[in-house]
Amino acid sequence: MKTLNSGYEIPDPLPWQAIAGPLVAAEDATARLDERLAKSRIRDGWIARTHFTDACASLWLEGELVHLEDLVLHDAGMDVRAPTHELTRAHAVLRTRRRIADGKPDWALSPAGLAGLRGREGRGDREEETGDRNEEGDEALDMDDGDGGADAAEPFRVTPTDDRLADVFAVVDAAIAKANRTLAGENITRRQPERDPLVYDLDWDEDERLDTWRALVDQTRSLPPTVAAAIAADAWTALEPLQHSPWLGRLLAAVLLRARGKARSHLPCLHDGLKAIPRERRRPRDAASRLAVQLEAIAAAAEAGLKDHDRWLTARTLLARKLDGRRSTSRLPALIDYVLTRPVVSAGMIAEELKITPRAAQDLVAALGLREATGRGRYRAWGIL
Predict the structure, then answer these.
(1) Who's near 141: CB < 8 A, 6+ residues apart?
(2) Higher-confidence residue: 181 or 62?
(3) Most confident of the ranges 111-120, 155-164, 263-272
């Protein structure tokens, strides 16, 4: 057994006998789903819908219930009630998944990507730019003669010919100096953010824990992608790099599958997959069983995604049959595509998306015969199976 400084232990050698079966199932299911999505006409709709389900599953694993319909309405800005704290957190997961899916395959695992996901965009970039500018300035001084350095340090000044202009220039100089001090103070503030001790543990060194986790991920480069993702997810749970974002670890494990080429056409829904594992089996004590559970979650997520894809594709085919005889300017094809991207849709959401009135949206829904999702007269929403 080799032990990291954090105390996380990786089996060495790996318990292949215990994880061989789950490994084969995870590799096969993920590859079949990705191949199916690569040539699917509903790929974009599948991805958009699974963002919602995986976000709800992430809160479900933490013991919080977030209704899928509430998350869809909150994302559209059409809440029927004040959003709860759990709903706000689920929406944060949803936004993060979208941001990761829209970026490059390996962006989220890069230092800039991790800083962005943590809400610390630009820190590294600003420091690098500052260093580059200093180096460029030093090189420029070295290339010039001794008098050139003195000339560069002396700011260019225009001697005003009028006393009134002198006052104006003085005000401008003071404003520029104040702006420079403000920018310098902003960098210092961002480097040392103040956190509320009632919310954050000040002794919790997130940077060190995150560096340890990244070093661990680097050690898995020679392993199969699914095994590397299982180790990354398990290590995140053990190390807890971020105090209030336990869900980010499985998203990064999904990113690892995407960056390693195992899931080129989609971002795996590992929260949804782990939700399918019985509760008493989710957190075993030995490392071999933990890795096996993570691999089973990857396989379960892929198998569920494959079933959902086939069901939604069948629903789209059935709805497309109702387009026969419609005029070319009909909004029904656009409504079908939009319904595939959301678990449920309301008249207001359809009206805003298709640029029509709510009454016209209800007429289109009736023409397609969409399934009623709420069963209420005061508030109605529709969807497909």
Answers:
(1) 148, 149, 152
(2) 62
(3) 263-272
> Do 141 and 148 form a contact (C-beta atoms < 8 A)?
yes
State both tokens at 316: 């789209």
Rounded to an integer, what distance in angstroms lies between the CA atom of residue 219 and that of residue 229?
12
Q: Are 26 and 299 in contact (CB under 8 A)?
A: yes
Note the pLDDT tens digit of each residue in 33-56.
999 999 999 999 999 999 999 999
Non-local CB neighbours of 126 within 8 Å, separated by 6+ positions: 187
Whole-model pTM? Answer: 0.77
Q: Is 115 exposed, middle or buried (0-12, 13-18, 19+ CB in 10 A)?
A: middle
Residue 320: name the closest of 293, 339, 303 by CA: 339
Of residues 143 and 82, more confidence is placed in 82
Mean pLDDT across 78-95: 92
Question: Which pLDDT score, from 0 to 100, does residue 51 have?
Answer: 97
Return the HEC string of the chain.
CEECCCCCEECCCCCHHHHHHHHHHHHHHHHHHHHHHHCCCCHHHHHHHHHHHHHHHHHHHCCCCCCHHHHHHHHCCCCCCCCCHHHHHHHHHHHHHHHHHHCCCCCCCCHHHHHHHCCCCCHHHHHHHHHHHHHHHHHHHHHCCHHHHHHHHCCCCCCCCCHHHHHHHHHHHHHHHHHHHHHHHHHHHHHCCCCCCCCCCCCCCHHHHHHHHHHHHHCCCCCCHHHHHHHHHHHHHHHCCCCCCCCHHHHHHHHHHHHCCCCCCCCCCHHHHHHCCCHHHCCCCCHHHHHHHHHHHHHHHHHHHHHHHHHHHHHHHHHHHHHCCCCCCCCHHHHHHHHCCCCCEEHHHHHHHHCCCHHHHHHHHHHHCCEECCCCCCCCEEECC
Amino acid code (one letter) for 372: E
Which residue reads 């004040």 in tokens?
82
CA distance 70 to 90: 10
pLDDT value of position 273: 96
Which one has a higher pLDDT value, 177 or 241? 241
List the structure tokens of 353: 């998306």
Q: Of 8-12, 57-61, 72-76, 231-235, give the lowest mean pLDDT range.
A: 8-12
